[in-house]
Amino acid sequence: MISFKLLNETNKLDIIPFLLLLDKKITEDILEDRLTEMFVQGYKCVGIFEGEKMIGISGLWIMTKYYVGKHIEPDNVIIHPEYRGAGVGEALMKWIDEYAISQNCIASELNCYVSNTAAQKFWVKEGYNIIGFHYQKMLNSSS
Fold it and tell me: What Cα–Cα distance (Å) separates residue 108 from each residue in 6, 7, 100, 101?
């Protein structure tokens, strides 16, 4: 049975292995430091569990922007590869939608890497529309 639980900063060492699945170039020490700072800034993370085993995560940001109002942003949605294609992602998004509604959010927005075509198909299937581009400019090459 799949269940969901909001995690907190004390769970950051459980979150890091999933973030490493996404990007192995960032060290565990840097991820731990960044997660500490993120939790201070209002970051939330939901863990996906099969029994006691964590099988995925999604970061969550709740914010208000002038063009959309109060909304939730699922961030770094990661399902362990062994559980992909089994409906876990759909169940997670249902949970996130219900959580967002309970927090008075009126929309959900997210970013998806251009190279991640499987995720793009998933997001469209989940009802997300492509409305723009995400741009990035690095200001410090050592970060």
Answer: 18, 20, 8, 10
Contact yes or no for 4/44 (Cβ under 8 A)? no
Cα 52 to chain center, whole Å? Answer: 20
Q: H or E element: which one contains 17?
A: helix 12-22
Measured CA to CA, the distance from residue 70 to residue 103 in angstroms comes to 9
| Mean pLDDT, each 10-residue run in order, the chain (143 residues) | 96 96 93 97 98 97 97 96 94 98 98 92 96 91 64
Question: What is the separation, in whole angstroms, between the first and last Cα of the chain?
Answer: 40
CA-based radius of gyration for the chain: 15
Which parts of the chain are beta strand (E)? 2-7, 44-50, 53-65, 69-79, 107-108
Going by C-alpha positions, the residue among 123, 112, 117, 56 that lies closest to residue 88 is 56
pLDDT at 23: 86
Global confidence as pTM: 0.93
- CATH number of the domain at 2-125, out of 2.40.160.10, 3.40.630.30, 3.10.180.10, 3.30.70.3040? 3.40.630.30
